[in-house]
Amino acid sequence: MTKVIYTLARTLRRLGFQFHEDNDVRVKAMREIIGRLGSIQFSIEISSDGAWVAESTNIDGIITGGTSKESINEHLKDAVLTYFEIPPHLCNETLVKTQGEPMKLEQKIYA
Q1: What's this model's pTM, rounded to 2 decimal places?
Q2: Is 28 left (phi over 0), alpha (psi -120 to 50) or beta?
Q3: Are 90 and 22 in contact (CB under 8 A)?
Q4: Residue 82: inside a domain
Q5: Distances from the Cα of 50 to the Cαs of 4, 69, 78, in angstroms?
Q6: 67-90: b or e for each residue (b if 16 or more CB lie within 10 Å)?
Q7: Number of domains present in the structure of the chain
Q8: Is there a domain that residue 54 lies in?
Q9: Residue 106 lies in a domain
Q10: Interval 78-94: pLDDT, tens
């Protein structure tokens, strides 16, 4: 149901409907916390089969994963919005942004 609400809200936004997410107290609180931290940082581990897991290194409890490296940014944004309990109709991609910095992936090799 959450995915349906998110998709419907995204479609309505494209048609010009405004949800005024910037005025929501949960969005304001999220932005304030992220602003104090400067950013939310993640440690990302990618296995040999392409599956990956990302965990925030500066906020306990934000963790996500997937099977495609191409979807990492999308999953990270979703994990952050979920952590801060932003309802699906307010989940606008512009609420959480990456700064265009290259992702730093840690690679471990074992023998």
Answers
A1: 0.81
A2: alpha
A3: no
A4: yes
A5: 28, 7, 20
A6: eeeeebeeebbbbbbebbebbbbb
A7: 1
A8: yes
A9: no
A10: 999 999 999 999 988 77
